[in-house]
């Protein structure tokens, strides 16, 4: 196995998106590739493309981590996590749907309060509190639309998805999975 050099750190992401294009037999737009591979804030990218976007929380609650959610955020089964489903939109046009698990024991009171009480994108919350973090992209793929996605976007299209973790102080602060239809962001 070849050791990656500092100049090769993005090779893995480029290979991932190339594999998805090959498997799906489609060339994605540069904007789609950026949205799928960025290790920065999706909110910031959408704000640049569309003007300030808005967020609507579809569901949010605290729950005990299951085996699945505990493994996603590296906590013990039974630890309290925040489950959140949101849609980022501009003028009621859905842009990106996302689900997240966030272990509450790793949040400050201020971040927890903002997360729970307001429709604020995670990227803006992290920026507001000057949270130094990094994103690690786990999976980039195309998935069939669920009934919920079909309803939210009024489409039968397949969806580009990615899941990633936000890491702070060497621990997973958040696990997020984002979705948008494959026919979105092709013109911008």
Explain how this protein is built.
This protein has helices spanning 11-24, 30-37, 42-50, 67-73, 109-117, 122-128, 147-153; strands at residues 54-64, 80-90, 93-103, 134-143, 159-168, 171-181. It is an alpha+beta fold and 188 residues long. It has a six-stranded antiparallel beta sheet, with helices on both faces. Strand 2 (80-90) and strand 3 (93-103) form a beta hairpin.
Beta strands, count: 6
Main sheet record = 6 strands, antiparallel
What portion of residues belong to β-strands?
25-35%
The CA-CA distance between the termini, in Å, is 38 Å
Helical fraction equals 25-40%
Order of helices and strands: HHHEHEEHHEHEE
pLDDT averaged residue by residue: 91
Overall 3D geometry?
Answer: globular
Radius of gyration: 17 Å
Largest sheet, order of strands side by side?
Answer: 1-2-3-6-5-4
Give the number of helices.
7
Poorly predicted sequence stretches spanning 5 or more consecutive residues: none
**What structural class results from the helix and strand content?**
alpha+beta
Secondary structure blueprint with pairings:
Layout: H1 11-24, H2 30-37, H3 42-50, E1 54-64, H4 67-73, E2 80-90, E3 93-103, H5 109-117, H6 122-128, E4 134-143, H7 147-153, E5 159-168, E6 171-181
């Amino acid at each position: 196995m070849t050791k990656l050099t500092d100049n090769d750190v993005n090779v893995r992401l480029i290979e991932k998106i190339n594999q998805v294009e090959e498997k799906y037999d489609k060339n994605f737009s540069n904007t789609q590739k950026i949205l799928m591979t960025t290790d920065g804030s999706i909110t910031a990218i959408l704000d640049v493309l569309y003007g300030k976007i808005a967020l609507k929380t579809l569901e949010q609650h605290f729950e005990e981590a299951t085996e699945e959610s505990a493994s996603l955020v590296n906590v013990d089964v039974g630890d309290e996590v925040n489950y959140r489903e949101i849609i980022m939109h501009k003028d009621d046009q859905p842009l990106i749907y996302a689900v997240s698990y966030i272990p509450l024991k790793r949040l400050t009171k201020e971040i927890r309060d903002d997360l729970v009480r307001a429709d604020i994108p995670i990227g803006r919350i992290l920026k507001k509190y000057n949270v130094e973090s990094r994103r690690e992209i786990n999976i980039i793929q195309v998935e069939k639309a669920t009934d919920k996605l079909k309803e939210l976007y009024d489409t039968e299209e397949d969806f580009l998805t990615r899941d990633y973790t936000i890491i702070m102080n060497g621990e997973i602060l958040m696990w997020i999975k984002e979705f948008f239809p494959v026919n979105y962001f092709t013109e911008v």
